[in-house]
Amino acid sequence: MISAGAGFPEVSAGKPRRMSNADTRVTARRTLIVIGLVLATVFALAFVYATRRVLVWAVVAAFFAVALKPLVDRLQRLWVRRRALATLLVFLAAFVVVAVLATVILAPLLNELGRFAERAPDLLRDARAGRGPLGQLLERFGVRRYVSEHSEQLRTFGTRLRQPAVGVLRGVVETVAGLVTVIVLAYLMVLEAPRITGRVLAAAGDGQRERLRRVGREVSRTVTGYLTGNLVISVICGALTFVVLALTGVPFAAVIALLVAVADLIPLVGATLGAVIAAGAGFLHSPTAGVVVLVFFVVYQQVENHLLQPLILARAVRLNPLTVLVSVLLAAELAGLLGALLAIPAAGIVQTLLREYGPARLRPDPPAGPADPRRRPAGPAHQG
């Protein structure tokens, strides 16, 4: 019979094994790493939230910089050798185009506003008396009776509207500052693009250099294709609006159609804003014209949202139409106006990255191109 103490270690049953000093240090190190990662994530999210306005400006500037960079590269390659001069000329040309469009739109509008201001007292007098087109319209919808019954409440509401004038002025100043910041950032991004690209390619090494060049070309093509497709859709909207307004006899049909085309460039709210402008002009001309314009925009918005945008933008960005529609809806729900603006190019960029770096089973099919004659078809060999 062997005793318990004959050369065997005595082990107490039911007692846990004590952790060694090495195990304690490993556990403490892992705990500190987890705490550090959590704190770093919290600080990063707080930083993004605190600087969200500047980050939005930077993202929008990068968006326009990627779109204008091919023009600057082509101008520098063909005509102007200095990068700074080529960038300045492209931005000046873009500014001239925007200024010409603004002049074409604003000059007739200011003229009409002046004429409206001269006729405003007479129109207001006729509206109060129920005379004229506006007075009859207000009488038909019961607006005059509502105003007379709630005149005190409307006067109080008008007084409250005058109070936040400082906030409106601050918003205008911030908008102008953001616009200037976006232009300056986009200019500097385009100007410094060759240096930034060269440093990134040098850091990547020979193995990844050609792949990064290919990804950069695809990203640039995606953004440029999105802008081109969006412009095509706006031109279609403006042309159809001009035809409808001209057929219904609404005055200044060309100016209103140009306003609608410019407003249609804005995602989500642009088409609705253009519809309000055109329908308002139609109702001021005649109730029949207003109804016709309103029906046209209801039908056209459905066609644009579910047919034109998926098809044209899918062809320009080389995305599946379903992907285009789902990307816009999800991004608009998550990030609002900015998300809708960047949804389609972001989806195209994700597709490019998946094609280059993703797993083989998740990579989308490459765009169809000419077949390689050196490549033999799969399948059994032809028996001669």
Explain how this protein is built.
The chain has 384 residues and is mostly helical. Helices cover 80% and strands 0% of the residues. It has helices at residues 21-50, 52-78, 83-129, 132-140, 143-149, 151-162, 165-191, 193-204, 206-248, 253-263, 270-285, 287-317, 321-357. α9 (206-248) runs antiparallel to α10 (253-263) and α9 runs antiparallel to α12. The chain starts with 20 loop residues before the first helix and ends in a 27-residue tail after the last helix.
Jot down its keywords.
AI-2E-like; 384 residues; transmembrane helix; mainly alpha; transmembrane; globular; disordered N terminus; 13 helices; 2 domains; 80% helix; membrane
Architecture blueprint of SSEs:
Blueprint lengths: L20 H30 L1 H27 L4 H47 L2 H9 L2 H7 L1 H12 L2 H27 L1 H12 L1 H43 L4 H11 L6 H16 L1 H31 L3 H37 L27
Helix pairs in contact: 2-3, 2-7, 2-9, 3-4, 3-10, 9-10, 9-12, 9-13, 10-11, 11-12, 12-13
Subcellular location: Cell membrane
Family: Belongs to the autoinducer-2 exporter (AI-2E) (TC 2.A.86) family.
GO cellular component, one term: plasma membrane
Outline:
The chain has helices at residues 21-50, 52-78, 83-129, 132-140, 143-149, 151-162, 165-191, 193-204, 206-248, 253-263, 270-285, 287-317, 321-357. The chain has 384 residues and is an all-alpha fold. The relative contact order is 0.06.
Q: Approximately how much helix is present in the residues? A: over 70%
Global Rg:
32 Å
The succession of helices and strands, N to C, reads: HHHHHHHHHHHHH
Distance between the termini: 88 Å
